[in-house]
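ESCALATION

Customer reports they have been waiting on this structure for their group meeting. Please prioritize. Original submission:
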Amino acid sequence: MTEKRLDPWGRGDIEDYGNLFKEFGIEPFDKYREKFQENRYVRRGIIFGQRDYGRIADAIEKKKRYAMMTGLMPSGKFHFGHKMVADQIIWYQGKGADTFICSADLEATVVRDVAPEIARKTAVEEYLTNYVALGLTEKNLTFWFQSDYVVPYYRFRDRLSKKVTLNELKGIYGDDLTTGKLFSAITQAADILHPQLKEFGGPRPTIVPVGADQDPHIRLTRDLAARFQGEYGFFPPSSTYHKFMRGLNGGKMSSSDPSSYISLTEEPETAKKKIMSSKTGGRATVKEQKELGGIPEQCMVYEMLVYHLVDSDKELEQVYSNCKTGGRICGECKKICAEKLALFLKEHQKRRKEASKTVEKILEKRKHGTGC
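Update from on-call: job pushed to the front of the queue and completed.
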C-alpha cells in the first residue's frame, strides 16, 4: 500500500514501513543498530527509521550535551503500546539527555474533545506515574502541560506562526486541517524546539522518538528550525521511528477499544484472560499446527513477548523456533505469556504505589517553571 500522507491525529495502520523511506525520506536505522544493541527496540528492529540521528549518536558516544523531547496524549489509559515510548525516554535519560516531557493537554482538548481537568488528571495518574514506575527519575527532567507553562514558551510558539503558511500546513496535513489541528501543529513545533532556547539550555542536538504517524510534525518542525536558525542557532530536531504494536485482536491497538490492549493498571487476572483470548498465528487444528507449524509473525502473543516480556534473544529465538516447527501449540504459548505478563504487572503496580513521592517532586518543580 502506498502512503501519500500520514495522519498524526487519526493513525491508520501502516502496512509497509519500508515504503516510508521512499515516500517521506525517512532513513533506515540499520547503521546505528550495532552501536546500541543494549536497547531492545533497536536490537530487534522495532526502531526502524531515523532522521539526522548521527548527531545524537555522536553526543551519546562523546558525552556531549543533548536533549530528548517527547509528548504524551492524555486521552485514555496508558497501555503497552505507550510503554515503548516510555522505555525510550528512560533509556535516553540514562544516556545523559536533558529530558523534556510535554503533556499535550491542549491538543487533547481542542482536537480530541477531552475535558481539560480530565486531561490533566490522566497525564499525571496514567502517564507520569507509570513513567516513574518504569524508571523515570527527577534527574535532568522538565515536565510541563501545554496549558500551563512559562512565558518564553508561549511567546516563542506565537512567533513560529509567522514563518509558515496555511497552504504549507495543508500540504503536510491535508485539506481537512481544522483550526484546532492548525493550533496543535504550531504548538507541537514549539514543544520540540523550545528546549533549544537560551532560557531552557540553548541550542543542542535534540532527539524526538515517535511512531511513524507523527512524522508530519517532525517535518514541519525541521523546516521551522531552518527558518529560525539564523536568529536562534537551532539544530534541526532528530527523530527515530518505531513500529506500532498491533491490538490483541490483530487490528489497530486503540485507547477507545479496551479489548485491543492491556493497560499497565490492568488487574493481572484480567490481563491473563485477555492474552488467552487474543489472536495468534496458529493453524485451524492442533494436528495442522504440529504438521505445518505456526506463523509467529501473525501472533499477538509473540508480539507481546518481543516488545515487552522477554529480554533474552536466545529465549525468544526458541519461542519462534518452537512455533514455526510445530513444537509448541498456541495454548501453551499463551499460558507462558500470560504468566510473564501477570508477574510484570504485579511488580509494576507495586512500583506505581512507590512512585507518588517522585511524581509530587516533579509536579512541584513544574509549578516553579524549572526542570528537576
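Sent to customer with the following note: The mean pLDDT is 91.
Escalation resolved.
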